[in-house]
Amino acid sequence: MGSAFPAELRRARKPRTLPPLDVLAVVAAGGALGSLLRYGAYLTWPGPFSTFLVNVIGCVAIGVLMFVITELVTAHRLVRPFLGVGVLGGFTTFSTYVADAVHLVAGGQPAFALVYLAGTVLSCLLAVAVGLLAARSAARAFGRG
Fold first, then answer.
1. What proportion of the chain, given as a percentage, has pLDDT over 70?
2. What are the domain boundaries of the chain?
3. I want to staple 132 with a disulfide (CB 3.0 to 4.6 A). Which of 7, 15, 24, 63 is the partner?
């Protein structure tokens, strides 16, 4: 049985390598911190509202972070893995968002589950844009943009 890829593409593949250990370490540390923050939010506001709020706040922070480290400052190479992938990746939780929707359906609220699913995605996309634009506006206001 032949390959689905042409020979020139098969030869071009490079073997996968693990990221450097310092990157793995900062992602792990950041993920632990972000997960603890999310758990604290859940203890404060249990249920789907907590998940929605955490995801929207995390997406605003992702928008701000991406502006700051790509357009405003020259960040250390471990800042993005620590804050973006680790802290904010551990803080935001789209797996819990799906589990919340399943619980809503099982609880007899399928229409609310659909609104929750679509509303979360749309709100989070908007939140990233708001974070980015707010950071850009703040930078301009302070003469940095």
1. 90
2. 20-141
3. 63
